[in-house]
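I have been asked to look over a protein record a colleague put together. What it holds is a sequence and that sequence's fold in C-alpha cell form. Please read both lines and tell me whether the C-alpha cells look consistent with the sequence. I do not need a full report, just your reasoning and any doubts. This is what I was given:
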Amino acid sequence: MNSTPHRYHPALVALHWLLALLLTVALGMGTFVLKTIPNDSPEKIAALQGHMIAGGLILLLTILRWVVRWSTAHPAPAPTGSAMLDRLAPLTHWALYGLVLLMAGSGVAMSLLAGLPDIVFKGMGSLPVNFNDLLPRAVHGIVGKLLMAMVFLHVAAALYHQCVRRDGLLRRMWFGSR
C-alpha cells in the first residue's frame, strides 16, 4: 500500500477553501470598501468591525492550517514540467503564509496604535481623521497588494495545471478518498 495520499487531508481542504473565501472578502473589503468610507461616517465603524473580525479569524485559521499541514500526510509535489517552477512552487506557498501573517500583524499593530479595539468594539472615542500617519498602515497596504499578487499567481498556477497540463491538480485540494 502506498502511504502517499492522492488528496490533501479533509481538514486542510476545508481550511484552504474557507481561507480563500475569507481572504477574498477581507482583501476586497479593505481595497474597495474601507477606503471609500470617510472616517467620520458611522458606516466606517461597522465596516472596520467586520474587517477586524475577519482578519482575526484569518490569522487563527492560517495558524491552524499550518499546524494541520505539518501534522498530516499530503500528496507529492505536482511537477510543472519546469525545474525552475518546481523549485518556486514551495516558495510561493511559504510566501502566501508569510504575507497572510504580515497582513494580520500589521493590521493588529495599526489597530492598537489607533485605539481601534475600544473605538470599534466598545464605542469609546472616535476614529482618527485618517490612518496614514501610522507606519503599520503603509505596511498593511503594501502587503495587501503583494498578497493579492501572490493569490493571483497561486490561482494562475492552479489553472495552468488544470487547463494546460491537465494533471487533475485541483482534485487534490477537494474532498474525496485520499
The CA atoms of residues 162 and 168 lie 6 Å apart. The two ends are 12 Å apart (CA to CA). The chain has one domain: 10-172. Residues 10-172 form a domain with the Fumarate Reductase Cytochrome B subunit fold (CATH 1.20.950).
